[in-house]
Design goal:
This protein has a single domain, classed as Aldolase class I (TIM Barrel, Alpha-Beta Barrel). About 25% of the residues lie in helices and about 15% in strands. It has nine helices and eleven strands. The chain has a nine-stranded mixed β-sheet, covered by helices on one side. Helix 1 packs parallel to helix 2 and helix 2 runs parallel beside helix 4. The protein is globular. It binds iron/sulfur cluster (2 copies).
Length: about 325
């Protein structure tokens, strides 16, 4: 496990349009799980209930987006394909903990050779299932199997498609040339076939959420895509992340100041399973955002992974507390 990963990907030429505008993060910040650089008590989040168990299916992806938080690409296998057997071990444990939902994220989940078995295993156990996908070729190879799963599970199976922006230009600046038309085609297929469908987008620096939702709504209308852009569960708009850029640390006093509650933060209700290359078996980490960070690896089983999470990473501040984002449905 390494604390910080170096970016080494076939990213589209040029900087990401979603780059965070801030100075460099001072080294003394986020260095002690108990206290901040100013010596104030650091905020932490207790697990209230494991509502959602995320399974990371592996980092390999057919794309190499400029600011992919998990640094996926066609060659990065830092997180191995999760096997059906490993997935089932964790799903069985989650069932005993009253978990409602299995989330599948990558990389591109449909590149994992066991993905259909994992999907069936989750649905057969009665979980709701949320799959994050770019809706491109890897997903389209499985059209017949997906239709069969949809016929059996109905709206218990949701696919959430990443469409980084409501314009082709910005989407392709982030995701690479020819990524827009394929994603739109995949979205239209899912919509026409009646899948429970959601879209994940991002806000450009300075772009207001209201205007972004209006623009997505116009796009979905024009393309006959059945997604309600005004429903935050159906169009999820994420804030930006960059762990190298400065951000305030979150203290115990911040909850009152910001009017936020620890129980609303993602790691209060979820965990993620990752299988890192070089490790004999999968591990449980605090959340989808921190597969590699030291201090956020919680053990080999879900039972071991119930401890409070100290918000000792820039993503905790920028994405979860100040940005207010949650990955779940
Ligand atoms: S499609 Fe998703 S997982 Fe793949 S590189 Fe882009 S952001 Fe990362
Ligand atoms: S980044 Fe992860 S560990 Fe940190 S607050 Fe968010 S969900 Fe919790």
């Amino acid at each position: 496990m390494s604390e910080t990963r170096t970016k080494s990907r076939n990213a589209p030429a040029g900087a990401s349009p979603f780059a965070v505008e801030a100075g460099a993060l001072p080294a003394e910040k986020f260095s002690d799980p108990q206290v901040t650089a100013k010596g104030e008590p650091r905020a932490s989040v207790p697990l209230t209930k494991l509502e959602t168990l995320w399974l990371n299916t592996g980092t390999l992806c057919n794309l190499a987006c400029a600011s992919c938080y998990i640094e996926s690409s066609p060659t990065n296998d830092a997180l191995l394909y999760l096997s059906q057997a490993h997935a089932e071990r964790f799903m069985n444990e989650a069932r005993g903990m009253g978990t409602r939902e299995i989330g599948l994220t990558g990389g591109e989940p449909f590149m994992n050779p066991d993905i259909l078995a994992i999907l069936s295993g989750a649905l057969d156990r009665g979980f709701d299932v949320l799959v994050l996908t770019n809706a491109m070729k890897p997903m389209r190879r499985h059209e017949a199997a997906l239709l069969a799963l949809r016929a059996e599970a109905g709206d218990r199976l949701t696919l959430r498609v990443s469409l980084d922006h409501h314009t082709k230009t910005v989407h392709e600046a982030e995701r690479g040339p020819r990524s827009w038309d394929a994603a739109m085609d995949g979205l239209r297929w899912l919509s026409v076939c009646g899948f429970s469908l959601a879209v994940a987008g991002r806000l450009l620096p300075g772009e207001g959420e209201g205007e972004a939702r209006e623009a997505y709504a116009a796009l979905f209308e024009a393309e006959s895509i059945r997604v309600d852009a005004h429903d935050p569960a159906r169009l999820v708009l994420f804030p930006e992340m960059d762990e190298s850029k400065d951000i305030a640390e979150i203290t115990t006093a911040c909850w009152g100041i910001l009017g936020k509650r620890p129980e609303d933060i993602m790691c209060a209700t979820s965990r993620m399973v990752v299988h890192r290359k070089g490790e004999p078996s999968p591990r449980v980490v605090s959340c989808t955002l921190l597969p590699y960070a030291e201090g956020f690896d919680l053990g080999e089983t879900l039972a071991e992974a119930t401890e409070d999470i100290a918000l000792n990473h820039p993503h905790c501040a920028r994405f979860c507390v100040l940005g207010g984002a949650s990955c779940s449905a």
